[in-house]
Amino acid sequence: MPKNSKVTQREHSNEHVTESVADLLALEEPVDYKQSVLNVAGESGGKQKAAEEELDAEDRPAWNSKLQYILAQIGFSVGLGNIWRFPYLCQKNGGGAYLVPYLVLLIIIGIPLFFLELAVGQRIRRGSIGVWHYVCPRLGGIGFSSCIVCLFVGLYYNVIIGWSIFYFFKSFQYPLPWSECPVIRNGTMAVVEAECEKSSATTYFWYREALDISNSISESGGLNWKMTLCLLVAWSIVGMAVVKGIQSSGKVMYFSSLFPYVVLACFLVRGLLLRGAIDGILHMFTPKLDKMLDPQVWREAATQVFFALGLGFGGVIAFSSYNKQDNNCHFDAALVSFINFFTSVLATLVVFAVLGFKANIMNEKCVVENAEKILGYLNSNVLSRDLIPPHVNFSHLTTKDYAEMYNVIRTVKEDKFSALGLDPCLLEDELDKSVQGTGLAFIAFTEAMTHFPASPFWSVMFFLMLINLGLGSMIGTMAGITTPIIDTFKVPKEMFTVGCCVFAFFVGLLFVQRSGNYFVTMFDDYSATLPLTVIVILENIAVAWIYGTKKFMQELTEMLGFQPYRFYFYMWKFVSPLCMAVLTTASIIQLGVTPPGYSAWIKEEAAERYLYFPNWAMALLITLIIVATLPMPVVFILRHFHLLSDGSNTLSVSYKKGRMMKDISNLEENDETRFILSKVPSEAPSPMPTHRSYLGPGSTSPLETSGNPNGRYGSGYLLATTPESEL
Questions:
Q1: What's the gap between Cα 111 and its chain centre?
Q2: For all residues of the chain together, what is the average pLDDT?
Q3: Which residues, 6+ apart, have CB-to-CB distance to 358 below 8 Å?
Q4: In this structure, are residues 470 and 161 in contact, taking their beta carbons and an 8 Å threshold?
Q5: Which residue segment(s) compose the domain that 577 sits in?
Q6: Which residue intervals are annotated with compositional bias (Polar residues) in the record (predicted)?
Q7: Is the pLDDT of residue 34 over 50?
Q8: What single DSSP character describes residue 261?
Q9: Is there a contact between 423 and 439 (Cβ–Cβ < 8 Å)?
Q10: Which residue has better confidence, 395 or 14?
């Protein structure tokens, strides 16, 4: 183009870009092309939306501070599972030996994938649907599956918050209502409730007073009105916390994320002062090395890593999308992962300290009860007094004295010993009694707190901590649902959020039936695990193998201002996908070998019994898994065979000086493309991606092409053959 042409003269001017696309191209107003970015090309829908987000970044809500964002990520990742699932897995899988597979998998799977989700959310600034549609439109179904999994988890997770609310309000009385069995009075007769007498006061209160549970999942039993009311309160709290997006939830996080650590610190100090606390902690850290080679232990450790960091849910991506693009998400990934692991270990120390105290109490109770049996046998001459060591004093019987007496009697009465019904009363047996999930919080821990001085205070603090832990996770779970839907479909934020809470409450009534606890088990243990694993695998594949690890690392370098460790390259490319493929295979095999089931509480026996899910429940479970995973293959097939548009028929015209973008969609014959492309439609340039995000190290930005004086205007503009006179 001649140096004295109008276009060349205007290129070197210092005046600002005009607002109209037509005016820009017709050169009716002065334009400073050196300070603008012009993109003219056909784009896929996902990349077009990502371009909109980058250009309109100032319109997206943002965190008030880095601290608020970190607390939000911590509140989402640190949840109820850190308090009861991690300690249970430690107790079940070899104590300190379990920490080895957990740490290994946290390093090679957890932190790299957590960093990956933080990075894509921050870079593309969209929810999970928009992010994965941008990275690979054919895998856009990942985002929809994440939303469905979040819905499944949120449905039952808020029920657990409702349980905590019920116990919280019941804690404001002394003595605690679960400290003693109820007494039934019949005239002058007073009889202890049989179900409670056969089990324990805390077990009876949990199953009968709180849940009023049925004998099986097939027995609905109707709604539990107390838990229905608590569920309504729980959804009201969550709704108020998230209705304004991060403007409201961010403020809640200051309390909901920090308060649990205050309570845990108080419980740790109090627990360490309890008699027998050291026994529990030593039991935890005594490793059973044979467990380290058990594949089941590694599978459970990997599942715990996924749930602990919130991988695949979309909440991590949603929170990260409200960050500035120069935020150091590399540091955030390591920090949040470390705090999450630290919280799990801290909670495990607290739990084992308290359980060590409880084990000593129960062991002493066992000694007293069996000593009374021995006295009865002595008085009835079933046992000879010669069997009792002379230094044994029944009024002050120690566990050591009882153990000595027990061994003598067992040796002498070897043939008839089983008929005596004596228990060994070993502390190790009490410590080995593993209580899973809700049973750990609502049975074992509550029973231990009844022996605390000022037990109502500790009970109030404990259940308030559970409510806040659950609330932080629910805020992230709701963000995993609302953020991608609002970003993609532009629905009103407040109305959609309230609608989600109302819908979830009514669907959640399934979990507050008398059989509701069994449905919680179904959703918690089975419905989300396999879909989440598949989601995380496809996320890894989408970035590392389809988009390209080298390009992704280059984009991270440009975004962060430094190159992340090479360690992440190899983890994303090779190690993490391989480990997750093995995990998925193991999960499917485990599901086939061991039929899914649940622990049912049988009222007549006052005991738990493991039952398999009936056929209709298995059908429901399979349906849940299919519904959660179906969007991924459906979107892939529809887009592969061009049955679903990916937005390739749209044209994005954008330039970045006044943060303006004009979209021309469904182009008509007489629209502005005549000015942009050419007078003849056949001369239009071939579509090509024009967004500057995620250009590989070997790629050249069409906006920065050198060697051509007009190259900076973009390839689409270069191919336009409109003569200068027509401009």
A1: 14
A2: 80
A3: 276, 430, 444, 447, 448, 451
A4: yes
A5: 80-362+435-644
A6: 698-709
A7: no
A8: H
A9: no
A10: 395
Residue 557: how many CB atoms within 10 A of its CB?
13
Cβ-based neighbour number of residue 57 at 10 Å = 13
Query: In this predicted structure, what is the pLDDT of residue 2?
Result: 47
The type of residue at 107 is I
Alpha helices in 666-705 (DSSP H): 673-676
pLDDT at 341: 94
Q: What is the pLDDT of residues 58-88, one digit of tens each?
A: 578 889 899 999 999 999 999 888 888 888 8
Nearest CA to 144 out of 623, 703, 531, 691 is that of 531
Q: What is the dihedral angle through the alpha carbons of 682, 686, 687, 690, rounded to the nearest 10 degrees?
A: -130
Verify cis geometry, omega within 30 degrees of 0, for the bond prior to 2: no
Contact 537, 570 (CB under 8 A): no
What is d(CA 369, CA 366) in angstroms, rounded to the nearest whole number? 5
User: Is 434 in a helix, a strand, or coil?
Assistant: coil
Extract the annotated binding site for Na(+). Answer: 75, 78, 82, 340, 469, 473
For 452, phi then psi, to 5°, come to: -75, 145
Known binding-site positions: 75, 78, 82, 340, 469, 473
In-domain check, residue 693: no
**Residue type at position 609:** R
What pLDDT score does 436 carry? 63
Beta bridge partners of 611: 598
pLDDT at 183 over 50: yes
Cα(514)–Cα(379) distance, rounded to whole angstroms?
Answer: 48
Task: Give the Cα separation of 264 and 210 in Å (integer).
Answer: 25
CB 318 within 8 A of CB 132: no
The tokens describing 690, both together, are 């024009």
Examine residue 487 and state whether it is found in any structural domain, yes or no: yes
DSSP 489-554: H---HHHHHHHHHHHHHHHGGGGGBTTHHHHHHHIIIIITHHHHHHHHHHHHHIIIIIIIHHHHHH
**Within-domain flag for 349:** yes
Kindly report the number of other CB atoms within 10 A of residue 407's CB atom.
11
Task: Quote the DSSP letter at residue 293.
Answer: G
Q: What does the pLDDT look like over 211-231, one tens digit per residue?
A: 999 999 999 889 999 999 999
Which range, 79-88, 508-517, 715-724, is most confident? 508-517
The H-or-E segment that residue 660 falls in is strand 660-664
Determine the average pLDDT of the residues in 471-485: 94
Q: What angle do CA 578, 580, 585 make, to 5 degrees?
A: 100
Structure tokens at 682: 């056949």
| Residue 675: other Cβ atoms inside 10 A | 18
Q: Which of 52-56, 532-536, 563-567 has the lowest mean pLDDT?
A: 52-56
Antiparallel, parallel or unpaired: β 189-192 and 183-186: antiparallel
Buried b (16+ CB within 10 A) or exposed e, 114-125: bbbbbbbbbbbb
Instruction: Output the six-digit token pair for 578.
Output: 């391989």
Query: 479: which 2 tokens?
Result: 């963000």
**Side chain identity, residue 91:** Q
Strand partners, 189: 186
Query: What pLDDT, on a 0 to 100 scale, did the predictor assign at position 225?
Result: 94
**Contact present, 537 and 632 (Cβ < 8 Å):** no
Query: What is the count of structural domains for the chain?
Result: 1
Helix (H, G, I), strand (E, B) or coil at 666: coil
Quick: pLDDT tens for 642-685: 888 765 444 333 333 333 333 433 444 444 333 334 334 434 34
610 within a domain of the structure (yes/no): yes
